[in-house]
């Protein structure tokens, strides 16, 4: 094109060049288009590896299962009765023909298994990387932490997809051997003798006396070399040579102890020491090289020996590295007097451990998501099983490390978690402001001001992180969610009702299957939650730290303990007896409601996690969000029947319930605790609860829409709701995305709800009857016979009346 557009070249030559160039391009395209497919097939580049086949086939099976499940849901809705499903299935996503190889035709070789294992590891790392970014969006990880995690995940992908990231992360939260001592014995195996000697020598070089001696020698040598002339005073020259030799020997011993040039290269203090010592050696012979110069030049060279002052960086590093001294320091758990030095240590430790704690928690969440994904792979190979065991080992290691940190640094761990929780909430508020702006509830000016306010609070949190010291008993109890509603005077009385007890490592605080209803608050220390399964094996479920509450579920359900609580470290426990707490709750209705809300959410989350464990796409975080949208309902003696929509889930917390299918007449009795599915059907479900039963569900799961043929349009919707979550802010309605189109028509029977300006109010039964009587009279006078026939069919159910008159009611 340059020649063709150049006017200096004659036109025939330009046309010839353009013609030949175009011919070459056309010929190249023709040759490549005809030969390249055959070449790619010959090289085998058009074939998918068996490892990718395995993962892709599993993904396609999950995709088809999701479509089949959604189809079954739509089949149960009258809106889609006219759908031609055979025609609709033609548009479904199908598995590519020939991609899924039958098991009988697969020939597994060692190389194929190795490739499959590598592909599985790569997928695990990709899930891990995706989890990091999602946690960053949720505010669980800071910018520095997510960059660090993603960087090391990329390094692991480049390094043959090895799942060994924890070996790097553990260095950020590594504790001294004293942290893993049990009854004076170290849990870790002893080091070889040579390594132990090198570790001992390195510890000696890092000790305070050695650092102080180096500091004194540096100050003396620098002062004398500047004040006195080494040429005139032989003592000054002798001191300079001796200090240089001592510094050189100390550096050589340090390199011998490290024995790894990579470790020494990334240690900035070792590099500074090396530069200072080598420059000091060069300056010793500066007098011989500069002998022909004047005295002023020689004096200027002596000023370069001030580089020795860089050795002071080692002393500054020693001040920061107080981790081992803090852990080996024998302190009492409840020592009220704390020296200034220890407070300074804890402030320094906070900045060091916060980054490591974020890394560990982010890695833990990512590994849990990887484990959940691998549990639902149907054809697990030996390589996949090995990866799964490696992930489980990483989870155990990170849990143990986090609990060790919390056991040794309870206040610092509380400060770190407080900072992370605050940042998460601020990040959630910032996203909520953006959602409100996109919904049109906020204009651009208001959105900018609110966003700037949230970001300002984030900067304050970063510059001034919370430093939490050992709280008092009253402060610990005031942080319990179900005690936040009580006043100061009542909180003081409740605090006095809690008994203090000190426990040691190995003490069993709660035994499984014991009928005991005390509620415990862990004020200090750590405990392990374990359960004996049907095979008799003791399975550790979780570990709890400072501020954890346990026992309130057994108190609310009035059942036996479901697990054992064993102390893993010395600590302090606050305990309130079950009858005393029940007496306090009966005198404070709001406290009782808060207790049931807290217990109900925990029970609902655990039950839904077990109920949805076969669904790989449902994470624990999504279940927790689902439970957060639920409200607590209490059944009163005069209102024991309710009808649910055909979508949503209902968790029975207390009492019994009779579910009757109004279409088939089938009746089923369920005992609490239980999850009831209200979907995959188009039938009307009527629930008859026992007296004082309690359940949790989303407010939209209970129909507020009356059947016009059953009740008059002016009658009162009959629901009895207990809880503060029913009337939520407008944002909750925006976040709830479940379409009302898929909710079938249903009716309510004999349940009372009175909406008012101040919330939800229960109406007395006599008033309800009078309102119903007047409404029915108006209906008989003004409505058609079809409505009365519907009412007659709704009230003439002998099987239902028989159930309602049974002993469970």
TrEMBL record:
It is found in: Membrane. Residues 770-781, 798-809 have a biased composition (Basic and acidic residues). One of its GO terms (molecular function) is voltage-gated potassium channel activity. It is a multi-pass membrane protein. Keywords: Ion transport, Membrane, Transmembrane, Transmembrane helix, Transport. This is Cyclic nucleotide-binding domain-containing protein. GO terms for biological process: regulation of membrane potential. The keyword Transmembrane helix applies. The keyword Transmembrane helix applies. It comes from Odontella aurita. Residues 482-602 form the Cyclic nucleotide-binding domain. Residues 770-809 are annotated as: Disordered. GO terms for cellular component: plasma membrane. SUPFAM superfamilies: cAMP-binding domain-like, Voltage-gated potassium channels. InterPro entries: cNMP-bd_dom, cNMP-bd_dom_sf, Ion_trans_dom, KCNH_animal-type, RmlC-like_jellyroll, Volt_channel_dom_sf. The chain crosses the membrane at residues 208-228, 234-256, 268-293. Residues 782-796 have a biased composition (Low complexity). It comes from the Eukaryota.
């Amino acid at each position: 094109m340059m020649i063709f557009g150049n006017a200096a070249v004659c036109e025939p030559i330009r046309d010839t060049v353009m013609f030949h160039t175009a011919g070459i391009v056309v010929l190249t395209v023709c040759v490549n288009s005809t030969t390249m497919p055959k070449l790619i097939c010959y090289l085998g580049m058009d074939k998918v590896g068996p490892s990718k086949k395995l993962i892709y086939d599993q993904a396609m099976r999950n995709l088809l299962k999701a479509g089949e499940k959604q189809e079954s849901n739509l089949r149960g809705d009258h809106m889609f009765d006219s759908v031609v499903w055979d025609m609709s299935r033609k548009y479904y996503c199908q598995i590519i023909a020939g991609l899924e190889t039958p098991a009988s035709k697969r020939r597994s070789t060692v190389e194929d298994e190795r490739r499959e294992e590598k592909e599985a590891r790569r997928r695990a790392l990709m899930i891990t990387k995706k989890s990091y970014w999602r946690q960053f969006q949720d505010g669980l990880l800071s910018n520095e932490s997510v960059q660090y995690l993603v960087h090391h995940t990329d390094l692991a992908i480049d390094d043959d997809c090895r799942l060994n990231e924890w070996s790097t992360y553990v260095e950020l939260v590594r504790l001294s051997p004293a942290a893993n001592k049990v009854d004076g014995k170290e849990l870790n195996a002893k080091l070889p003798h040579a390594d132990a000697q090198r570790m001992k020598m390195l510890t000696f070089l890092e000790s305070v006396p050695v650092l102080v001696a180096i500091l004194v020698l540096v100050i003396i040598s620098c002062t004398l070399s500047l004040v006195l002339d080494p040429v005139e005073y032989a003592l000054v020259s002798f001191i300079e040579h001796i200090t240089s030799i001592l510094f050189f020997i100390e550096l050589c011993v340090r390199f011998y102890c490290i024995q790894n040039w990579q470790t020494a290269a990334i240690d900035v203090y070792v590099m500074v020491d090396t530069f200072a010592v080598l420059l000091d050696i060069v300056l010793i012979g500066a007098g011989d090289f500069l002998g022909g110069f004047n005295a002023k030049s020689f004096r200027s060279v002596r000023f370069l020996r001030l580089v020795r002052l860089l050795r002071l960086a080692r002393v500054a590093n020693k001040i920061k590295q107080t981790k081992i001294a803090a852990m080996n320091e024998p302190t009492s758990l409840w020592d009220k007097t704390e020296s200034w030095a220890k407070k300074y240590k804890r402030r320094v430790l906070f900045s060091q451990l916060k980054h490591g704690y974020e890394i560990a928690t982010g890695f833990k969440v990512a590994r849990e998501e990887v484990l959940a994904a691998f549990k639902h792979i149907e054809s697990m190979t030996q390589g996949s099983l090995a990866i799964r065991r490696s992930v489980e080992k990483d989870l155990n290691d990170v849990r143990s490390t986090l609990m060790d940190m919390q056991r040794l640094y309870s206040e610092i761990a509380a400060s770190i978690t407080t900072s992370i929780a605050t940042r998460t909430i601020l990040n959630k508020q910032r996203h909520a402001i953006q959602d409100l702006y996109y919904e049109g509830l906020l204009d651009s000016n208001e959105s900018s001001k609110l966003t700037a306010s949230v970001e300002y609070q984030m900067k304050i949190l970063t510059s001034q992180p919370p430093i939490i010291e050992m709280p008092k008993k009253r402060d610990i109890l005031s942080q319990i969610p179900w005690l936040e509603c009580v006043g100061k005077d009542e909180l003081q009385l409740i605090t006095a009702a809690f008994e203090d007890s000190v426990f040691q490592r190995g003490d069993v605080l709660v035994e499984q299957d014991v009928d005991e209803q005390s509620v415990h608050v862990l004020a200090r220390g750590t405990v392990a939650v374990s359960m004996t399964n049907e095979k008799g094996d003791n399975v550790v479920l979780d570990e709890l730290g400072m501020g954890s509450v346990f026992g309130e579920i057994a108190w609310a359900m009035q059942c036996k303990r479901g697990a054992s609580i064993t102390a893993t470290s010395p600590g302090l426990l606050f305990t309130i007896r079950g009858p005393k707490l029940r007496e306090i709750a009966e005198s404070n209705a709001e406290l009782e409601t808060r207790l049931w809300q807290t217990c109900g959410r925990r029970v609902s989350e655990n039950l839904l996690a077990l109920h949805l464990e076969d669904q790989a796409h449902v994470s624990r975080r999504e279940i927790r969000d689902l439970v957060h949208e639920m409200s607590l309902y209490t059944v009163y003696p005069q209102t024991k029947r309710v009808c649910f929509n055909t979508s949503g889930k209902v968790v029975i917390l207390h009492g019994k319930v009779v579910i009757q299918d109004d279409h088939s007449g089938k009746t089923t009795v369920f005992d609490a605790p239980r999850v009831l599915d209200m979907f995959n059907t188009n039938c009307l479900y009527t629930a008859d609860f026992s007296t004082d039963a309690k359940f949790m569900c989303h407010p939209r799961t209970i129909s507020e829409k009356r059947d016009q043929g059953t009740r008059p349009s002016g009658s009162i919707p009959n629901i009895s709701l207990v809880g503060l979550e029913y009337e939520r802010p407008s944002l909750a309605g925006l976040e709830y995305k479940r379409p009302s189109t898929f909710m079938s028509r249903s009716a309510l029977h004999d349940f009372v709800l009175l909406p008012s300006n101040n919330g939800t109010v229960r109406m007395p039964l006599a008033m309800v009857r009078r309102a119903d009587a007047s409404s029915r009279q108006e209906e008989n006078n003004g409505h058609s016979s079809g409505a009365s026939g519907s009412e007659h069919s709704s009230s003439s159910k002998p099987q239902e009346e028989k159930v309602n008159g049974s002993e469970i009611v």
